[in-house]
Amino acid sequence: MNRQLSRRRxxxxxxxxxxxxxxxxxxxxxxxxxxxxxxEQPAAERVQIEFLGMPGSPELIPxxxxxxxxxxxxxxxxxxxxxxxxxxxxxxMALVVAGTPPDTSRVESDVYxxxxxxxxxxxxxxxxxxxPEFSAPDYWIQPQEDDRQVYQGESYxxxxxxxxxxxxxxxxxxxxxxxxxxxxDPEEAWGWDDFLAMATELTVDVNGNHxxxxxxxxxxxxxxGVNWPTWWIPLHAAVQSNGSDWIDAESxxxxxxxxxxxxxxxxxADLRIAHGVMPRTEALQALGMGGTQLLETKKVALQVDGxxxxxxxxxxxxxxxxxVLPAMQRPGTDMQAHFVTVVQDAENPDExxxxxxxxxxxxxxxRYCRSGLWLPSQNALMTEDSIADWCVEPEHPPGYELxxxxxxxxxxxxxxxxxxxxxxxxxxxxxxxxxxFNGEARAEDVLPAAVxxxxxxxxxxxxxxxx
Length: 467
Known about the structure:
- By secondary structure, the chain is of the alpha/beta class.
- The chain has two domains: about 5-160 and about 335-380, D-Maltodextrin-Binding Protein, domain 2 (3-Layer(aba) Sandwich), CATH 3.40.190; about 165-335 and about 415-465, Periplasmic binding protein-like II (D-Maltodextrin-Binding Protein, domain 2, 3-Layer(aba) Sandwich), CATH 3.40.190.10.
- Helices cover about 40% and strands about 10% of the residues.
- The protein contains 20 helices and 14 strands.
- It has a five-stranded mixed β-sheet. A five-stranded mixed β-sheet has the order 8-9-10-7-11.
- Strand 4 and strand 5 form a beta hairpin.
- Helix 19 packs antiparallel against helix 20.
- The longest helix has 21 residues, at about 445-465.
- It is globular.
């Protein structure tokens, strides 16, 4: 596929009327190479491959570039920094329209299919099939890898890793209260009613009262039982645990109006609205704390957050614990991650593929799994020996290997986001989510119309010409 993205189509899909000045601002800065050039291979003879965005952590990139250059002496990996004042997604589209695209790019999962649809990404199926490792049937965790990679029969990128939401808690708090914490084993997941009872017990005002007590004071809280963020990744986990989907994989239509999905979303809203075990938005704003601080100060007993949060939460005072989310009908969680891709008009696609392959190697992924930032997408990192090497303390609490080997691969679901999804969500879904989670409306009263509107928006976007 070799579609050309017109300026009009770029402006439509980016949602930003970028003028000449903005396009100029998105030109890549003069590349600053890191890692030493070998004397045998002068810099002038190297093929430069630009990567837009950060594939991993900035402090680790120089070492990664050095190793890549050692393994590929004919290629120089150059980072194109994100332009100030614009998103990376707008920057990529602007560079393509300006005729100066990078060779490779980080692409977020919510726009991956839209970018493939627009012809911004090079199909890499042939590269994967020709690679003896990547094409092996047991290389990737399946079926999730194919679920995210393949669009209309082609792969346009490789997922960087997996991440998944789960519970975090302060170990010392549960020890002080004499309460047994939830488990990392999905077979021992709390049922929803048991979870709600525990969240009520863990919620206490400054006078020691719990929700349901006659003198409970919701305006003067010592601790809330749970904080379950109301953005799409934690909410998708809830929908999955109630036996439903966010988007139907076959039709690529939103199905948040199913009874199970609406009940799951209302259950999360009711943690705050009906049961008083979760802080309201204004309370969180007044505290000015993120999830890790809420746990460390013991203002929240159970925090739902992505697996990535382990990389900065593991050292909290009192010790960090983790657990699977409660099961409404079944254990369930969300699985997501950004993609590494070759841009359609890459001048040297073969060399660009070598960089993508390096960024998808077990060595590269293991670095970030070890730090607690990522979960594996490759079975090589899921063996007993490998787990014993990287999934270790202090970054990983005892039992975390069950999140890695049982919970995520067996109960995790990738949320496919079709062409036009971002516009549909921003226009139709997010406004009613605000109503639901602020207690202004119930899910069953507002979601059916919102889902119908969102599906119509996606259908219109998918039918638009791309040139």
